[in-house]
Design brief:
Blueprint lengths: L1 E5 L4 H12 L5 E4 L7 H6 L7 E4 L2 E4 L3 H9 L10 H27 L21 H24 L10 H15 L9 H11 L5 H5 L17
Parallel strand pairs: 1-2
Antiparallel strand pairs: 1-3, 3-4
Helix pairs in contact: 1-6, 4-5, 4-6, 5-7
Length: 227
């Protein structure tokens, strides 16, 4: 029995979900209200964080550790490039999207519209209305990041090189969460939009596009493959 405990708008959780789907590994996707510190979940993960993957008797948590476990345990199809320099670049970009993009874009934008816990963040909902300065800074930052994605996808077949990798899954996970609430200015960079359309059209993306968050309706174009 394989089960992934997650939150719907968590980029880290979406990386794990996309990787499992790309490897055609069936896994029950269970929404976990990790902030409630459910005793049964604490047995699996004392830190009470998502994503947490249970694979038979193996428990793996975190957006870094789950990819490494999946690649070692289920190597085909590989989501780390075979060439050492591309594999290094994929790891660099995975970290970039999990740290720099998350801090500069996802947290300032997504947390203004939805409960941070729906995104896998430990902090409670922020009091008061949206922070206009945070939104302005996030929108400036996302344009810079779209330019980076556009440049990489224009000069390579995929973000890290010739094959799709965790770099692509990490970027798509972040952007898909923001696209859910309509915060991606796709007209800013055509190359980035074209790359996203390619990965959004993959079968692994279908469960994400079909899922909605209670009380938070998706942007009208969110599930459209041609947008």
């Amino acid at each position: 029995m394989r089960e992934l405990f997650h939150q719907s708008l968590s980029p880290a959780c979406r990386i794990a979900r996309l990787a499992l789907a790309e490897k055609k590994l069936d896994a029950a996707a269970t929404i976990e209200r990790f902030w409630e510190r459910r005793p049964e979940f604490l047995v699996l993960n004392p830190a009470s964080r998502v994503p947490t993957l249970v694979d038979d008797r193996v428990v793996v948590s975190g957006a870094y550790h789950i990819p490494e476990y999946l690649e070692e345990t289920y190597p085909d199809p590989a989501l780390w490039p075979a060439a050492p320099e591309e594999r290094l670049e994929a790891r660099r970009l995975l970290d970039w999207f999990l740290t720099v993009f998350q801090a500069e874009v996802t947290e300032p934008l997504l947390m203004q519209k939805v409960n941070p816990r729906f995104c896998g963040f430990a902090q409670p909902p922020r009091p008061g209305g949206p922070d206009i300065n945070a939104i302005r800074g996030g929108m400036d930052a996302i344009r810079r990041h779209l330019d980076l994605i556009g440049h990489l996808s224009d000069s390579r077949r995929w973000l890290a090189g010739e094959t799709m990798s965790y770099a692509d899954l990490a970027a798509a996970a972040q952007l898909s969460c923001l696209d859910y609430v309509g915060d991606v200015p796709w007209s800013h960079n055509d190359q980035a939009k074209t790359w996203y359309m390619r990965i959004k059209s993959r079968p692994s993306f279908r469960p994400l596009l079909a899922e909605t968050v209670p009380g938070v309706p998706p942007a009208r174009h969110y599930a459209n493959l041609d947008f």
